[in-house]
Each structure stands twice: as structure tokens, then as C-alpha cells.
Amino acid sequence: MTSEAFAMLCEQNSFPEIGNGQLIQYLTEPRDSCTPLQPGQTRKQSGQPRGGGVETEYVMERDSRGDYHASLALEFPNSAHAAEVEQRVRTCLQTLAPYLSGPDGHKLEIKLLNQEQLNRLPPNLRPEIRPIDVVRYGRANYQAYPNDITCPEILHEVMHLFGLNDEYYENEHLYCRPVMEDSLMVSETAFTESVIPTQIRCDCTGITCRSIMNSGNQRLIDAYTAQDIPTLKQACEWSERVVTSLSAPTFVANGPRGWNVQRDRVMPSASAPYYEIRRGTSACRCKATDRYCLEYRRGDLQRSRAVHQVKAFCPFGAPLLERKFVSATTPAGVDAQGIYSFPIPQGRNRSLLHPNQFRLVIGGNCPNASPNYRTCSNFANTLPNPSCETPMACYDPRYYLGTSH
Ligand SMILES: [Zn+2]
């Protein structure tokens, strides 16, 4: 991010510091804990990430404009990269704040309290301090972050501390979980980049990338830079062979539970013309009981070629240099230094939180806070259960997440 763009973001984030305004009304009575927060009021709330079963606490403040400021007390116990990761978390939350907004347009800023701010709070408003381990590698979870955790991953994990649950397909043992598609709690990187203008930069100085991008053959360039089509591993059998000419991808239904995909990939090769075309074909079939697969099949056929057009990764043979949030994206192209860059297409969502996710964070662990979200996300971590009782309505993002589509 340029320093100019960063200054712009900082300006937008110049919210009042917690606990320093004389107009702030602290709500500390239990009877106040579930009434809607009014501008000028502050209270302690809790979130309940299921799975680990740990309750987290945070301070929720509403400023005079009606915007919300949630403060967490996180502690990063000493390890080689703890201070660096803590700083990354702070910077990330500040960068993303303009993109966390609710259905009524109010904003949500998430902050980490430092020791001094904690001390300034009345004792009964101080949230419990939660340790976050910084680990060398591994998948992030809400209580341990790898050294190289990215900003979208940070936001995903932090939202668990506010009570949001995962919405992605994990494995068949979690089939009671309603699986969503476009959400921070499904694929944080893709979703974040579809909301915030993002530019990807790839090193195109290698022979494969150079010869294709300079070939003047637009069809070849399009196929080389296209996004690969994802397939469902548990349902599809793939085979691949080298072919001599390109053809467009195809998706064809095969009975009520099956479908076939064919798509070409342009891959590096050691000798001239330094690329080869590999044609992949897959025959896919869902088990009758695999609800996720059946939904996926429907989506795969519907998405059809559109999937192929959404570029999100550097092409083979052109290593990723950087994915960065920008103030405005520029069209795809190779510059004089041999850097191929392209924009991530902006999605239909304007906020990183869907309406019911936002409502849950605002309302905390109150029974009437985002009731649909609470009902549906209760099944997110259900263990194998033959009588999986997830309400069917939960498979509709309009019901679960409050989306308009
Ligand atoms: Zn998660």
C-alpha cells in the first residue's frame, strides 16, 4: 500500500480512543446487557466460538455517529515473531476497518487494547486477556497464528473471537454444517479481495511467461492467464493428456448426480515453444447422501465458464511477487520490468461482513442477537450425527447470513 493510501485509511480510522470521552456512558448492569447499544454507550460483551467452547470478551463502544468500536484484549506471549505478528494484526485491523459495515451502513472498527487502555477502563468493563500463540507453521486457528499469517486470515480468526463460525466444507464428519459460498468464514482471501480492490503481481521474466505474453496470440494468453477450474476431489476422477490445440472448457450434466468437466491448462515446458497444452477431463458423481456434493454440482454447472474468467492466481511459470490492496485497480498487462499484474474482479458485496454476521458481533451473546445466524451456526461444528437436524433454511445464505442474493 502506498503511504498516501495508508494516510487516507488512517484518517478514516481516527475514531475516539476508548474510555477517554467524557460523554461515554458505561453500561454495567446485567439488565443492560442485551438492550441495543445507543450512541455514546459502552459495555462489555461476549462472543462464544463453538468448537473450542471458549467464551471471549470484548468491549463494545458506540460513538456519537452511531459507528461501533470493538476492543479485544489479546496478548502475544513471547516467541521469535510475536511482536511482529502483533503489529501485523493491528495494522491489518486498521486497514480493513473501512470495509466492515452493517446493513444500515454503520461501521465496525476492531481494535486491540494495550495495557494502558485496559488500565483506564472501569474494572468491571475490562475484558479477559486472551493469549494468541505465534507458531512457526501450520494452519491458523483462533488461538494460534503462524508467523506468515496474512491479513485476510487474521480477520477470519479474529471474527471467531466474536462468535462467528466456519462456513466452509471441511469433511464429511462435519456434514451438519451449513456450507456457504461467498463469505469471510468460507475463503477469507478470495472474499476479502473481492470486496477490497486488489492487484496481483507476478514475475513474468521466465521463458514460458515471456514467450506466451509476447506471442501476440490472444487466445493462448487468455488460456495461460485463466483461473484453473476447481474440482471436487471426493467426487471426481481426473485424467490429463497433452494436446496440440486449445479448446474452450465444457461442463456437462451427466444424470441427476453426475457431471463432466473438460478444461485445458497451459503449462511450462523445457523446450521451445516453452509451453504445452494439457487437457484435463473429469467424470464426477455425488453420493446420494452427500448434500455438499449435490450443492456443489449445481453450482459447478451454473458457474460454468464464469469460474474460468475470474483470475486469482499467477499463471504457472510466473511466481507470485505480491498481492496488495490498492486504491484503484489497473487492467491486466506486463510492464517494462517483466511484471505481469492483474486486478481481482470486485464482487457484489461491499462489506467484509454479511448482515447477520455483523448483527451477531454487535449484539454479542444475547439470544435475540441475529437469531438466524445463531440457529444455523450452532450446527457448524456438530460431530457425526446420523439424525443431522440442521434446518433446511440454513442452507440459504439469505436466511443464514441475511444476504440479499
Ligand atoms: Zn475458521
Short description:
The chain contains eleven helices and 17 strands.
What does this structure look like?
The chain has 11 helices and 17 strands. With about 400 residues, the chain is an alpha/beta fold. The chain has 2 domains: about 5-195 and about 350-400, no CATH class; about 200-345, no CATH class. A hairpin with a 5-residue loop joins β3 and β4. The radius of gyration is 24 Å and the shape is globular. Mean pLDDT is about 85; it is low at about 1-15. Zinc ion binds near residues 156, 160 and 166.
Core attributes:
single chain; 405 residues; alpha/beta; 2 domains; 5-stranded mixed beta sheet; 4-stranded antiparallel beta sheet; 11 helices; 17 strands; 25% helix; binds zinc ion
